[in-house]
Design a protein that fits this description.
Layout: H1 18-31, H2 35-66, H3 70-85
Length: about 90
């Protein structure tokens, strides 16, 4: 019989700029959630976004490796540069 996996909860203390704190408090009030829950959800979404960005980078790199079209190569290089260095 499988045992239920317990999620370990860890308490962290962070310091935020006042403007970020106001935004988080506003979001918590608007959505009727605690500020801690809002922060945890924002962190989860941020981590998922970073992972998706990494997967997109690898997909573009794979396409660059197999294309022989010079225009497509240049476009892919530019897109990879934007992902790596920003606009």
């Amino acid at each position: 019989m499988p045992t239920a996996m317990k999620t370990r909860i860890v308490r962290r203390s962070i310091s935020l700029r006042a403007d970020l704190d106001r935004k988080i408090q506003h979001l918590a009030t608007r959505t009727n959630r605690s500020t801690n829950r809002v922060l945890a959800e924002l962190i989860e979404v941020g981590l998922e976004s970073k992972e998706a960005e990494k997967q997109r980078f690898f997909a573009l790199a794979d396409r660059l490796a197999v294309t022989s079209d010079k225009r497509e190569q240049q476009r892919l290089k530019e897109e990879l540069a934007r992902l790596t260095f920003g606009e």
